[in-house]
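Severity: low
Component: inverse-folding endpoint
Summary: output formatting inconsistent between runs
Steps to reproduce: submit the following structure tokens with default settings.
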């Protein structure tokens, strides 16, 4: 039987072909994406070596502290991955600065290096609580345009990054699973690349990914059920009621606890993910970070025909107020996300019975 040779495009070829649509483009954007991809390849390598190298476990105090700006324990691989993103992306002259889930403030491109017109926001290793148990983790990144004064040399500040998700020029993630994949949107749909570990190249294996409009699968951390707001509780109760409930069909449930891995499953076969606003910690209006997680994943899901929301409004329309802002996040198959938004918009039973305390009443603060 003859062997068929599969000759998929490389990531570089894909980017060059995309660039042909913009005859004035100088290649900076492509170089930036290739640098981010290079960082992901280096992280994939470190993740894959697992316990064979000294990269598992928590980052030690004596090496600079083990709690990040989010108040979370940093893993050695969180720190390493953050460093790889910076070193691989700072030198090329296409960036004016970076922000990361692992750093308190913005990182300016050092003065001995050329400054460019883009900004990079990233979560170097999402789901890092899964590293030590060999479950999939990933990196997430978002590309924004730098305000012109910054691209021209004015000092960089946190405010320069506080742009709504609709302003993203590109977003992507790498998933370090059984195979390493890079999923990318440059605003023309969503495309998946699989790393050929021998050639060291990301090959286009999943062009034009689309999230199905309907699903029978949901993802939520059910241990938070007692903190959920009424619309989320209603939605999950209805899914759990299955065929005998108001939805008239059975649902399946999955929770990987690596948002990037849950997002990938939804991109491949549909589903809905919820990490909604809840009452667990009133100082945090959600678990996930707007700039490093919700916006890039929201951009990808919407580019693939799905929907991403806070439950109350499209997440990409949220005006960020701080770098490490958290937000409630619901994304995935369009019809399910719209249903969850509808449940949030409908007055609750209690409000309907006591209209003076309803959403738009005088007594609501
Ligand atoms: O960064 C946040 C994260 O690790 C996500 O990747 C994941 O969805 C979530 O936290 C898991 O949260 P929990 O521990 O509450 O299940």
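Observed output (run 2 of 3):
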């Amino acid at each position: 039987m003859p062997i068929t040779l599969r000759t998929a495009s490389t990531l570089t070829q894909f980017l060059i072909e995309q660039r042909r649509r913009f005859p004035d483009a100088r290649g900076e954007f492509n170089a930036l994406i290739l640098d981010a991809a290079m960082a992901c390849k280096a992280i994939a390598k470190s993740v894959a070596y697992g316990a064979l190298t000294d990269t598992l476990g928590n980052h030690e105090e004596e090496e600079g502290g083990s709690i990040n700006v989010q108040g979370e324990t940093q893993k050695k691989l969180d720190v390493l991955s953050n460093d790889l993103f910076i070193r691989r992306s700072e030198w090329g002259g296409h960036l004016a600065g970076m922000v990361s889930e692992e750093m308190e403030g913005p990182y300016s491109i050092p003065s001995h290096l050329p400054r460019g017109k883009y900004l990079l926001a990233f979560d170097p290793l999402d789901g890092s609580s899964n590293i030590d148990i060999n479950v999939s983790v990933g990196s997430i990144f978002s590309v924004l345009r730098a305000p012109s004064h910054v691209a021209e040399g004015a000092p960089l500040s946190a405010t320069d990054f506080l742009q709504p998700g609709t302003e993203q020029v590109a977003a992507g993630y790498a998933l370090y699973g059984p195979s390493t994949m890079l999923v990318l949107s440059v605003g023309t749909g969503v495309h998946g690349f699989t790393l050929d570990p021998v050639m060291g190249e990301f090959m286009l294996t999943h062009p034009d990914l689309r999230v199905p409009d309907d699903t029978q699968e949901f993802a939520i951390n059910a241990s938070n059920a007692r903190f959920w707001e009424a619309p989320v509780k209603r939605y999950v109760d209805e899914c759990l009621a299955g065929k005998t409930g108001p939805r008239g069909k059975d649902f399946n449930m999955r929770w990987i606890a690596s948002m990037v891995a849950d997002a990938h499953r939804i991109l491949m076969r549909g589903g809905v993910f919820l990490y909604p606003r809840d009452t667990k910690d009133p100082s945090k209006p959600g678990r996930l970070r707007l700039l490093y997680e919700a916006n890039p994943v929201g951009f990808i899901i919407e580019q693939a025909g799905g929907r991403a929301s806070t439950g109350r409004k499209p997440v990409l329309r949220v005006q960020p107020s701080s770098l490490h802002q958290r937000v409630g996040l619901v994304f995935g198959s369009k019809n399910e996300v719209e249903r969850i938004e509808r449940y949030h918009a409908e007055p609750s039973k209690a409000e309907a019975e006591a209209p003076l305390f309803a959403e738009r009443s005088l007594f609501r603060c």
